[in-house]
Amino acid sequence: MSAPADPPRHPALALPPRPPARRGLWALPLLLSLVFVAGVLLWLRATEQADLEEQRTALVSDALSLETQASARIERESLLLKDVATRLDHRSTGPQALATLPEAQQGLHRFWISLTWLDAANRLVAQLPDGPDGARSGPGLSAHLSAPLASGGTLVARYSPGEMLRQTVPWWLARKYDVRLLDGFDAVIASTTEDRPLDGRQSWRISMAPALADSWLELTARDVVPPWYHGLPVAMVAGFVALIAAITWMLRRQMHGVSRAEAAWRTEAAWRQAMEDSLTVGLRARDLEGRLVYVNRTLADMVGYEPHELVGLLPPMPYWPADSHEEIMQRHLRNMAGQAPREGYEARWRQRDGRLFDVMVFEAPLVDARGVHIGWMGSILDMTERRRLEERERRQTETMAHHARLTMLGEVASTLAHELNQPLTAIASYNAGVMNSMQKLPSPDPVVMRALKRLGEQAAHAGAIVQRIREFLTRREPRLEPCALNAVIEGGVALLRRELQRQQVQVLLQLDAALPVIVADAVLIEQVVINLVRNAGDALAHQAGERRIVAGSSLSADGRFVRIDVRDNGPGLGGLGIEALCAPFFSTKAEGMGMGLAICRSIIEAHHGMFDATDAAGGGAVFALTLPVDLSASELSAEEGT
Ligand code: ADP
User: Fold this and answer.
1) Do residues 520 and 618 both lie within one domain?
2) Could you give the CA distance from residue 509 to residue 528 in angstroms, rounded to a whole number?
3) How far is the CA of 135 from the centre of ligand 1 (A)?
4) Which residue, by CA, sits nearest to atom 7 of ligand 1?
5) Which residues of the chain fall below pLDDT 70?
6) Is residue 12 included in any domain, yes or no?
7) CATH classification of the domain holding 568
8) How far apart, in whole angstroms, are the C-alpha atoms of residue 632 and residue 603?
9) 288 and 362: one domain?
10) Any residues with Cβ below 6 Å from ligand 1, and which?
11) Residue whose CA is closest, atom 14 of ligand 1?
12) What pLDDT shows up at residue 19?
C-alpha cells in the first residue's frame, strides 16, 4: 500500500523543508536489537556445537585410551595367570601347591575372585580361596581368564570386571565419565557408578575384543553440555529483547507525539507565514544589537530587497537615505535604548531604486518563550498610499470649493447678463431708431451712418455674448454646432485688433488651412480665444521691445484632436501651472477679477477638451486648448433636438 501523497502545496508557502519520511524510524532500534539477538543466539548455538564436538572428541580419545588400558590390564592378568600356571607345572607337587604360590595370592589380592585348577578331564584339582565362589564374588557379573597347564588341565581365574575397572580407571576419568562394561545384550557387566546414565549425555562405546570377547566399554560424559537455549545468556538476551521492546514502544509513542507536535507546528508556521505575507504592514525583528533577524515579504517588497539580503545586516541599513545617516543613526540608538515613541514615529526610507518614501514605524519589545527581552519588533506602514489618498481628498475638497465658487459666480454672472440684456437691447433699439431717422434725412452723413451700423452690430454681438454666457452659466452645457475653428480664431482676434493696436502688440495667425470642421459652441470657443489673446496682450503691455502674440491652430498627428495655442513673448508664467492659474479669483492684475481662465477651462472641459499652460521655451507663455474632432454625433443631434 502506498503512503498517501501530500496535498499540493501553494507556492506562496515557503515552509521549512520537510525532513525525509521517518514514519518507521522508531522500529529501527528494535530491528537492530533483533539482529543483534539473532547473532548472539547463533553464536550460542555455534558455541554449543563446538562444546559438544570438543566433548565428543575428548570422549572418543578417552574411551580409546581406557579401552587400551583395560585391555592391557586383562592381557597382563592373563600373562600373570600363565606365569602361575608355569610355576604350578614346575612344582607339580599336589593340589596344595596352588595355595603356596605367592603369585596366586597376589592375583587374589588384585581382583581375582577365585583361582581354579582343573585337570585334563575338567575335574577340580584345587581352588583358591577355599569354599564356595559366591562368598567372594560380590555383586555383579564376573569374567574369567584361563591358562593351560603343561601337565594337562587348565588354570582358571575368575575375576570381577567391576573391580578390574575400579583399579584401571583413573580417578579423574571416573569423575568425568560413567564407565560401564556391557555384554552383547547391553546388560551391564560392571560400572563405576550405581546410577543409570541420564538421557541427553554424550556416550561412546568401544569393543573390548579381543581382551574381553563380546563386551563393550561405554563411557558416558558426566557433564552435560547445556543446550544453547538454557542458561544465563539466553535469559539475559530474553530480558534484553523485552527491555528493547518496551523501549521501542515508548519510543514509538514519543515519536508519534513529536510527529503530531511537528505537524501542528508546520500548520501553525504555514498559517503564520500566510498571515505575515498577507499583511500590508511590514514587519522586522532586530536583536539587541540592532541586527535584522527577520523581515516579512511586505517589508522586503517595500524597500526592494529580498528578505535574505536584509537578514543579518547591522546598521546603517541599505534603505536609509544616504544624506540622513547621522540623524537616522541617532534615532536608531534611541530606539535600541527602548525610547521609541509608543505612538510610532515617521521616517523617510529609500527604495533600492533610489525612490524615497515615507513610513510610519511602531516599535515593540521582542521577548522569547522564556520571557527574556531579546530585541525589538517593528511594524512599518508605507505612507505613500495614505499620502496619495490625503492629497486626493484635499484636491477633491478644493475642487468642490472651486465648483461652489463657480456656481455662485455663475449665478452672479447670470444675473448680470440678465441685467445687461435690457440696456443692450435698448442700445440696439435706440441705434435702430437713430439710423431710421438718419436715413429719412435727405443726405445722411455716411461716416455717421457707418458708425451707427457698427454700433448696432457691436450691440447685437454683445447681446449674443451675454446671452450665450448666461446660457452656459445656467445650463453648464455648450450649444454644439458645426464650427470652423480658424474662422472663430480670426473673429476673436479681429474683435481685439483695435485694443491690441493701442497696446502696440503685433498679432500673428498661424492657422492650419486643413483643419476639419468640428462640433463645438463657436461663441464660447471665441470667448476663450478672446480671453487668451487679451491676457497675452495684458502681459505684454508693459514690456519694452517687441510685443508679439501668435495664435495658431493645428491637427494632431492621428487626426483626432485640433489644437489652438496662443503664445506671447511676454514675462511668462513664472513656473505657475494650469491649476494655479485657473484657481478662481487668481489674478496678478490690479483690476483683474481672476475668473477668466477658470471660465475658459470650464468651457473647454465642457467640450471634452483639455486646457493647459506652460512657459514657452524662448520666454513668454503658451496657452493651449485641445478639442476632440469627433465629439460624438449623438451629442450634436441631442443638442439640435433641444
Ligand atoms: P485676470 O485676467 O482677471 O487676472 P485670468 O484668470 O484671465 O484673470 O488670469 C489670471 C492670471 O493669469 C493673470 O492675472 C496673470 O497673472 C496670469 N496670466 C494669464 N495669461 C498670462 C500670460 N499670457 N502671460 C503671463 N501671465 C498670464
Assistant:
1) yes
2) 16
3) 169
4) 596
5) 1-23, 92-93, 131-140, 197-198, 402-403, 405-406, 473-476, 631-642
6) no
7) 3.30.565.10
8) 17
9) yes
10) 531, 535-536, 539, 568, 570-571, 573, 581, 586-589, 592-597, 621
11) 587
12) 57
Give yes or no: residues 209 and 293 share one domain: no
Task: Quote the ligand 1 centre to 272 CA distance (angstroms).
Answer: 60
Phi/psi zone of residue 257: left (φ > 0), alpha (ψ -120 to 50 degrees), beta?
A: alpha
288 and 208 in one domain?
no
Ligand 1 centroid to residue 175 C-alpha, Å:
141
pTM for the structure as a whole: 0.43
Ligand 1, atom 20: nearest CA belongs to which residue?
535
Please say which residue of 221, 255, 270 terminates a domain.
221
**Of 331, 358, 382, which marks where a domain is finished?**
382
- Same domain assignment for residues 359 and 493: no
Q: Would you state the pLDDT for residue 17? A: 55
Tens-digit pLDDT profile for residues 197-235: 667 788 999 998 888 888 899 999 988 888 888 878 888
For the chain, the domain total comes to: 3
Domain range spanning residue 539?
A: 480-641
- 343: domain CATH number is 3.30.450.20
Give the N- to C-terminal CA distance of the chain in Å, as an integer: 83
Rounded Cα–Cα distance for residues 263 and 23 (Å): 13
Nearest CA to ligand 1 atom 13: 587
Residue 567 has φ and ψ, to the nearest 5°, of -120, 150
Of 190, 175, 191, 127, give the one whose Cα is nearest residue 154.
Answer: 127
